Amino acid sequence: MNFTEILCFIVLFLVLPILISGFIRNLKARLQNRIGSPLLQPLYNLYKLLQKSETISQDASPLFRIVPALNFSIMLILAVLVPWLPFHFSLPGSEIFLVLYLFAAMRFFSIIAALDTGSPFSAFGASREATLSALTEPAIILSLVALGIAYRTSDLNEIFSFSQSHGLMQVSIWLLSGAGLFLASLVELSRMPIDDPTTHLELTMVHEAMVIENSGPNLALIELAYNLRLVVYYGLSAQCFMHALAVLFTIDHATYVLLSILAIFILAFLTAAIESFAVKLAWRNNPEFIAYALTMSLLASLAAIFQSAFASLSLGNLGAFL
Amino acid sequence: MTPLEFLSIAAAVFAILMCGTGLLRFNLFLYSLQTFSIALATIAQSQQAKEPELYFVAIAIIVVKALAVPYFLSWISNRIDARSDPGILIPIPITMHAAIVLLGISYPLAKSLPHILWLSDSTVGATVAISLLFTGTLFMLTRRNALSQIIGFLTLENGIYLVAVTCTRGMPFIFEMGSLLDVLVAVMIAGLFVFRIKKSFEHIDVTQLDGLKES
Amino acid sequence: MIPVYKKLAINELANTIRADLEIEGNRVGLVTSIDGNQLITLMLNTRSGNTVLYQAELASDSYTSLTTTIPQLHWHERAIHDLFGLIPLGHPRLKPAIINESCETIFAPLRETAKPISDKLLATRDFEYLHISGEPIFELPVGPVHAGIIEPGHFMLSCLGEDVLNLEVRLGYLHRGIEKRITEIPWRKARFVAEAAASDTACANALAHALAIESLLAVEPSFRSQGLRTLALEIERLAMHIGDIAGMAYDLGYLVIAANFSRLRGTALRLAELLSGSRFLRGYICPGGVVHDPDRLLSEIQRTTKNLRENLKPALDFFISNPAVYERLRNTGKLSSSLASEFGMVGVVARACNIAYDCRQSFAQGSYPKNHPTIALQQEGDALARTLVRIAEINSSLDLIDTILSDLPSGTIGSNLPVDLPANAIGIGIVEAFRGELIHLVITDKAGSIKRYAIKDPSFNNWTGLAIAMRNNVIADFPICNKSFALSYSGHDL
Amino acid sequence: MHFSAPYPIYFGVAPLSLFLDPLAAIFVLLLLTVTMASAIFAPSYLRHLTGKINQSYFWINMILFIVGMLMVLLSANAVTFLVFWEIMSLSSAALVASDFSSHKAHKATIIYLGATRIATSLLAIGFLWYYSIFSSWNFVDWKLNSESLPAAILVALGLCIKAGIWPFHIWLPYAHPQAPAPVSALMSGVMIKVAIYAAIRLFVLPGSGSEELAYLFIALGMISALWGIVFALIQTDLKRLLAYSSVENIGLILASVGICLWAQKTGMKEIALISFVAALFHSINHGIFKSLLFLSTGAIDSAMHSREMKNLGGLSKKMPWTSFAFLVGAASACALPPLSGFASKWLIYQGFFTIPCQWHGKAMIGISLVSIGLLAFLGGLALACFTKAFAISFLGRPRSAAINHAKEASPSMLIAQLSLTLITVLMGLLSPQIISFFSLVYQSILVPEEAAISGFAKFVGPSLPLLPLAIVLTLLTCIIYYSVLFRKRKQLKLSMTWECGYGGLEPTMQATAGSFSHSIATIFAPILHYSTRFQISGKDRRHFPEQIQVETEISSLLESSIYSPIINSVRLLSGHFSKLQAGSIHLYLLYVFITLIALLTLGAKS
Q1: Where are the domains of chain A?
Q2: List of long-range contacts for D465-469, beta carbons under 8 Å, 24+ apart
Q3: What is the tens place of the pLDDT at every residue in A228-276?
Q4: Closest Cα of chain B to A168: distance in Å?
Q5: pLDDT class for C420, splitting at 50, 70, 90?
Q6: What pTM was computed for the model?
Q7: Residue D567's domain spans which residues?
Q8: Distance from CA of A3 to the nearest CA of C (A)
Q9: Fold exhibited by the domain C178-484
């Protein structure tokens, strides 16, 4: 990795989280024929929140204030470990299970922080988060494992480097994994159709209900971590789609980088469109939506196994398989 | 992997996704996509096998099965106010995962098929064809709405067609057209039946049709 | 209209009401008191359009609760308790309804001042929830101030996980003393107070007030003004229903449709502005007629209606033909037909439960006798049924507006009213507001001034329905249930 | 490191024979660590049980129990094993019964005794069978081949009962909560691992592997894991929750053992190594963090005299150190990096993941894919389970008045907990080193190819940079906390939790244990038999219910539809048998006579 790439990474790392969430907000407004807030509104919000003083519940334990900082730092580490942009730090530890359990750690702490204040709203937010994440976890792991099987490694950096390409089967693995990740990330990020981030109704929310007791700089950290999580998830699925593209066409690196960023914006656009045109699911129907994410990842792993089967066919050990 | 196989895998995926929702209109949309990819697969096959009349078959499939039939069925579902299917036996998401397992199983099955015309690269096609048969049957098994039964049947029919396209070099043109016409007529008649059932029973729940055996 | 007036002994009252309710088409309109010395009960017959007013004198501050045998009176009795300090003995849910419990003692604003409140009434007014026992139950307080721009009301949901087992509605934050105020001002000014009872129902309230006063004075407004009044009422219904659908779409997360309907509500409100000069039709209807003839603007109104209809149709189709909307609303907030009639639901809620009651037919006035719309009925009683009823009513209102506009009788718009109200008279105005049956009851004293002015908003009946419909739904369905009932807080609290 | 010391003491057929190899040494180390912690913990813990249990009775049984376990781990032949196994089982049963007054303890002891009886008899039959095949009591002589497979399966079932594997786990959630906390820690932390140790010694160490046993272990293990965590999730008693969570973890360990057996059979050296280390490491980890959690629960119990979550809440302010220890234990149970639970769970994942990557074995690929998905799901459920356990007990507002009088546990109890906490953290941070040490153990016993070992070491090191990760994480957190939050501490306002303007929320207005897990429980309603029971009373129930009582019920499908019918029929049968025992001498003489004739005829035949 050369200096320009590191510079690009840092710039995108700083700019994209704000820009993407601003973009989604603005686009949603435009789809409703409103002018909408400026693209940098999330930044202004963060600035405002950082200036504010903070009110916390008298029932809260010290954990309550440590968790936002802790979660944000986990998120920073994750953003470096996960290859969500087409630049690769060859850092150790960028490993499927480690990365996913770091995400799980964030969830663990945010659930605990939500329950810390003893607020009934954050309580059911936490309960929902726990339920949904348990259902989504298999989908996320399996879509990454499918890629892992295809490349025979659990190292994400290796998976997302362009080591091999095997034609259309590879394309389908990438596409299905990308789709699985994207659908699962909609659940993970509590967006439509699971959770409506724009609604004012505290009763229907997941993420917003969990952080209902947080305020000021504390909330700013949570928002920032959320925005970062959003781009990391979207970036990862965008990378999946881009790899599918790269199997089909030869693209030079600069174009590839631009296209990757474009892909993230396209996913953001998709989110905005879903949030404008989709109807929020009833709570009991959420598993049906998550089932789609799981289906995509299962199909991806099936495709990966098929591909291995073909690879082994070409190696001549067909007998071992049949 | 050839484009034919890629497209047929897409068809299998759409068929499996179809199992995951009870919303009839979404089912029909996915069915339409599935048929569309099968039609494209036919075109790919026609190029590969140099059989130009398959072009016409593909176009006919698109017009009849991918557009007309779904449109007709969605019109009926609007008319009789049937929008979703609650499912029966097992929860709808599980049906979808079962369909994936069946897709996995169809691979060894396809390999063990006595090959009429053994092309090493059409194993995937045969796998998909078998999985479409499975998926269609599973769909019919686990749904209670009469319209879903028709959709399941059509999926099954797609599977049979795909066997014909991938495992043989396609049936004679006239048979294709004939069977296509049959499907169209069958759907029309089934649609009319659904109307009648709705009129005489006030519902189109096939699980409750066992009440008929009394008379 | 003038009700038939009957005097009863207090111990006969319950039996009489029950006997009356046995008869097809009879329902209880309103139970209240005049000055704390008696109970009056307004019975309505929805078939013949006749009304009966029973009056039963009270010997003391307490009486045997009617609720124990007639469940639908529980809210009325709570209101009487708040307003007059009368105690219904044996009432299963005696707690503040109209005046919030933060007024720690009963001050009974409508009570005859001469009569003091006995000491035992000065008990605490704590709002006792129905506590559900069991380890896993947790309670979720919501409100009174909500995150959206809505009126204050507090809800207590007792939940098991996501499932709501019980909903307690706690209102009374908006009590403004409207009923009291009307008796204190000259009757000619009263219409401004009356229509402020619920501002989104301003037109219906003004009309009910006008009808009540006119029935006292035995004045018949001109045909043209009757047509204009019906027009105004239908425009209000149209605008508010569109607004409710927009709210529903918003709660469903269907943002594009929500934005679209919100815009169309603006168009409907523009119709109101063209007709009356006020977007919410305030100050338009007065006893004796209407205040302003939109003669030149009628063609403009016609054009806007046509425009609105054209825009509305695709939006409505888009909304309701979406199977996801359909599925989301179906079986959400289900209210059984039997419970709905036992608790005396009115309006959209009742019609969604297959109860064919529409004041536009039962108590037709204005242009309704000539061309009343068919009653939009649904069977299921869920949020979907209520939405479908609203949509049917939007369409019928549009038709009605067109019909009225096409042959509006010519003539004057107002008539001269006598200076004084008759003494010891009773007048009622019953109007189908967009939420349902709205009743204004005027009783004058022997000097001919208003002694008691009672308003019964449709929400008054329907709040109970919301609490029942929420049972066994999930928490996340509460906003949708609430929106499908679309109840008024201020109309209830008065 | 081999050490063998046969003694000329005979148990009828075989000498008392002990030996210590690295494998046994690791388990002995676990035993000693947990024993140490429990011993430090016990004296002040027992103070709150004064009057309920007899101290000398407790200590005698405790020592017997520990010695029993130690000797089981050290025994070199089957007879020694069985003798000390019995001592271990019976003394632990006596410990479960230590609270004489409690009816629950009686029931738990009976169930536990029944389970251990069956386990011992299965083991005894299996061992005899083994002996008849190999004509030796020594474990080293026992091979795993097609001939000895039935015996192996019998032994495996016996061990599964002891380990609390589905469907034999029934005794575990009764016995563990009833025992005093130090004993639960030993039982859950070590005793059930002894069964795993025996499984490893008997089935893995022969080195030949077995597919049948592997499939049995994987199936039972994964089912136990799912079953255990689902049941753990809906418990409201902390100790029962922990007991069920042990079922989950032991299931994962067994599944790993299964993978190891499969890999040995099919010659996948690397996978065998990974899953062996995974099983071993997770046994040790689980031993430590589960003991820690049990001890912390014991500390709560001694402070509050209750383990029901409905009485707890807000304890973190009263018992900060205990709550810290519990938090670390819970995080480790959720396998959060960089704690020890993660490292071993990671290896379990890798065991499954490597199978499709190596592209070997048709059915196993499917199984491993499903298992990975299931593991992820289990991870999510464990997260829900332990966030619930920690947050409902320690966070929020007090749910009962007793909490206001709660005090931090005594120093000795804290030392016990915190030392285990420290071990958990250290084992996580040093996991690459520990893992390579464990792989050496495997090497020293089984001598696999060098290539597998070196490949494995290369693969673990960079993939698990937990120590640098922890350091970076801590630094980052401190920097962010200091720069964003700490600076503003002067502006910090304390206020009530948002209470809708009502002035103080009631204790019921916060998450309850039952509500938190309700959504997931309804998903699993079919296997949990989860149902909600309403009792509505009042004069006019239709319109104005006056009292609503809600209870959720779970009854395990296994208990209701398999075990109780069996127990009932046994009871019925034993009723019939009791008629045989009429008390008449003549009747007994008749039995003797019949037996004599029967034996003579049998003897004549052979």
Answers
A1: 3-309
A2: D465/A92, D465/A93, D466/D337, D466/D338, D466/D342, D466/D343, D466/D428, D466/D429, D466/D431, D466/D432, D467/D338, D467/D429, D467/D430, D468/A92, D468/A93, D469/A77, D469/A93, D469/D337, D469/D338
A3: 999 999 999 999 999 888 888 888 888 989 999 999 999 999 999 998 8
A4: 6
A5: confident
A6: 0.91
A7: 563-605
A8: 44
A9: Cytochrome-c3 Hydrogenase; chain B (1.10.645)
